[in-house]
């Protein structure tokens, strides 16, 4: 079972890299600044770096902050003693191995479907849905076994994150346009291209800091003393995913929502990186997909509503709603079937 769990964690990380490569480098490739291969190499390095240095914040939330599986945490949360019923559900003070496996595979499965459909979905939502789903599979709808305050905080962040990055990108792109209006276009074009690549590295770092926790956070419940090794595993898995199947969703983010120039790519990526990094420090698993798409929409809105593909955005929004729901329901049903 341990090898199976590690492989499942790698599979989820691979999925996140394949789907979220677009979030890190979609605008850079879409603006035709560097090739996809070079962009992926930059992304891979900084994803691993972000996961190793700061991935532990979100890992703790995903691994232990949704379903209450420790007796001491249950007693503190409810004010009641963890009796025989609790011990029946969580005899080892952690999620059962089957629950970890089902949560990871459920999340990975729906992200795989989205990636092959070229839709940038929220991998954060998928894994949170998977973990919450197996929790329901174990204890039913008993709210005392869930940290509802943490879940509400996560749900709120999912709404706030894309709105925040949209506003930041809109303001940044507008101010950047005013500053560059009277400057030498050729010279500043080269400077902007360099800054866009730097912002792609920052997004990749933020992705590692936030989404490595989504990839292998559930494994932290089983291996609480292996945080650094798990973060390295998640970062490498994400880098491999980006290198193998990341190009599909990259085209959607970089080219299909709104046309991007260098300034637009910089504004969208920097706004997304800042927003995701902010939530990562708070230990909240937010969606890099939502953040980047919000940033791209913000850039597009500076040119008017007609500059944004509402059809493509509607498809993306639908994916954001369906993914966590399907992952949660699938995980709950699957856990009941295999138990």
Question: What is the count of DSSP helices, taking H or I runs of 4+ residues?
Answer: 14
The major sheet is characterized as: none
Number of strands: 0
Low-confidence stretches: none
Helix/strand-derived category reads mainly alpha
- Overall geometry comes to elongated
Helix content: over 70%
Percentage of β-strand residues: under 5%
Q: N-to-C SSE series?
A: HHHHHHHHHHHHHH
Distance between the termini: 15 Å
Could you state the oligomeric state of the chains shown?
Answer: single chain
Mean pLDDT: 78
Compute the CA-based radius of gyration. 20 Å
Please characterize this protein's 3D structure.
By secondary structure, the chain is an all-alpha fold. The protein is 79% helix and 0% strand. It has 14 helices and no strands. The chain is elongated, with a radius of gyration of 20 Å. 58% of the residues are buried. The model has no long low-confidence stretch (mean pLDDT 78).
Would you summarize the structure shown here?
With 339 residues, the chain is mainly α. The chain has helices spanning 2-30, 36-54, 56-64, 71-78, 84-89, 97-116, 123-139, 148-180, 185-220, 227-245, 247-256, 262-281, 288-301, 310-338.
List key phrases describing it:
single chain; 339 residues; mainly alpha
What is the secondary structure topology, with strand pairs?
Blueprint: H1 2-30, H2 36-54, H3 56-64, H4 71-78, H5 84-89, H6 97-116, H7 123-139, H8 148-180, H9 185-220, H10 227-245, H11 247-256, H12 262-281, H13 288-301, H14 310-338
Helix pairs in contact: 1-2, 1-6, 1-9, 1-10, 1-11, 1-12, 1-13, 2-9, 2-10, 3-9, 6-7, 6-14, 7-9, 7-14, 8-12, 8-13, 9-10, 9-12, 12-13
């Amino acid at each position: 079972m341990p090898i199976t769990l590690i492989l499942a964690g790698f599979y989820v990380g691979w999925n996140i890299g394949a789907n979220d490569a677009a979030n890190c480098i979609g605008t850079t490739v879409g603006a035709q600044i560097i090739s996809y291969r070079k962009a992926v190499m930059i992304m891979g390095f900084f994803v691993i770096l972000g996961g190793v240095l700061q991935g532990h914040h979100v890992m703790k939330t995903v691994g232990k902050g949704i379903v209450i599986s420790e007796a001491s945490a249950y007693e503190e949360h409810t004010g009641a003693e963890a009796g025989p019923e609790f011990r029946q559900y969580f005899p080892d003070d952690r999620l059962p191995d089957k629950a970890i496996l089902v949560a990871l595979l459920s999340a990975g499965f729906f992200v795989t479907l989205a990636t092959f459909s070229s839709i940038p979905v929220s991998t954060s939502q998928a894994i949170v849905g998977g973990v919450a789903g197996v929790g329901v599979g174990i204890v039913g709808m008993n709210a005392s076994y869930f940290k509802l305050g943490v879940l509400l905080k996560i749900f709120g962040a999912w709404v706030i994150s894309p709105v925040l990055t949209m506003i930041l990108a809109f303001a940044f792109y507008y101010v950047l346009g005013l500053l560059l209006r009277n400057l030498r276009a050729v010279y500043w074009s080269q400077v902007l291209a360099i800054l866009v690549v730097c912002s792609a590295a920052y997004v990749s770092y933020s992705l590692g800091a936030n989404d490595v926790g989504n990839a292998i956070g559930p494994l932290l419940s089983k291996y609480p003393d292996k945080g650094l090794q798990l973060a390295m595993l998640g970062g490498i898995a994400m880098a491999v995913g980006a290198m193998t199947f990341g190009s599909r969703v990259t085209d959607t983010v970089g080219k299909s929502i709104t046309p991007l120039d260098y300034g637009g790519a910089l504004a969208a990526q920097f706004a997304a990186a800042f927003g995701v990094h902010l939530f990562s420090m708070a230990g909240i698993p937010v969606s890099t997909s939502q953040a980047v798409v919000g940033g791209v929409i913000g850039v597009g809105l500076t040119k008017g509503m007609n500059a944004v593909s509402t059809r493509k955005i509607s498809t993306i929004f639908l994916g954001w709603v369906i993914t966590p729901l399907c992952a949660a329901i699938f995980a709950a049903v699957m856990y009941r079937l295999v138990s």
